[in-house]
Amino acid sequence: MSASIDLPVAVFSSHRLIARGPLGGVLEAVRTAADGEAAPLVIDLATGRVVDLDLRGTLDAAKARLTPAPEAEKRGPGRPKLGVTAREVTLLPRHWDWLAGQPGGASVALRKLVEGALREAEGPNRVRKAKEAAYRFMTAMAGDLPGYEEATRMLFAGDWTAFDAATEGWPEGVRDVARGMAAGAWRNWAG
Questions:
Q1: Which helix (H) or strand (E) holds 131?
Q2: What is the rounded CA–CA span in Å between residue 190 and residue 99?
Q3: Which helix or strand (DSSP H or E) is residue 180 part of?
Q4: Label partner for 14 (CA 20 to 30 A): which of 61, 111, 167, 171?
């Protein structure tokens, strides 16, 4: 998987945070750190995954290997200005009968049902994704730190107070990034 130039990342050398921001903006710090004793670790702040980079050659050559920000994909049949795409849906006859009787017809009724389901799942999906991203980051950066096991348990238990207590002794950059990534995992968090 190639990394986007706009990907939000945090860069660590050992347990020290050395840069944070869009990948294209921190690439020079990554290259400088790569010349040091320990290879830098670049973390995707959205997923918690380690980002592999090809740092060969000049800074411009390394930046050129990054992918540009994703563009809007080309649209096919449907109503392209609205982003509508025609696809096949298979339903039982009673489902088609019910849809046909809905105001606006089958398409409007299906869109309303899907939008409702998306809104309903938004909170649980946000919580799950935040926990997964924080766990990946913590495994990569804090697996050897005191309190790691307790912090992991508290992350999945949803106990932010105990999580903060378990991460208190961690190096500042690791602690702050872990807490920031875990923030979306707390059900009462509105960010």
A1: helix 105-142
A2: 35
A3: helix 172-182
A4: 61
Q: CB-hemisphere CA count at 13 Å for 56?
A: 2
- For the record, the structure tokens of 87 come out as 């696809």
Model-level pTM?
0.69
User: Residue 75 — left, alpha, or beta (φ > 0 → left; ψ -120 to 50 → alpha)?
Assistant: beta
Evaluate whether 91 touches 102 at the Cβ level (below 8 Å).
no
Q: What's the CA gap between 171 and 188, in Å, rounded?
A: 26
Distance CA 186, CA 35 (A): 39
| CB atoms closer than 10 angstroms to residue 54 | 11
- 106-128, pLDDT tens digit by residue? 888 888 888 888 777 677 888 89
Task: Supply 133's token pair.
Answer: 């991203």
**In this model, does residue 181 exceed pLDDT 90?**
yes
Task: Output the CA–CA distances (angstroms, integers) from residue 96 to 27, 100, 104, 118, 149, in the order listed.
Answer: 54, 6, 13, 22, 52
pLDDT value at position 57? 85
Amino acid at 53: L
Residues 94, 114: Cα–Cα separation, whole Å: 19
Question: Quick count: other Cβ atoms within 10 Å of Cβ 98?
Answer: 13
Q: What SS3 class is residue 148?
A: helix
Q: Which are the contacts of 134, defined by CB distance < 8 A and separation ≥ 6?
A: 48, 155, 178, 181, 182, 185
pLDDT over threshold 90, residue 180: yes
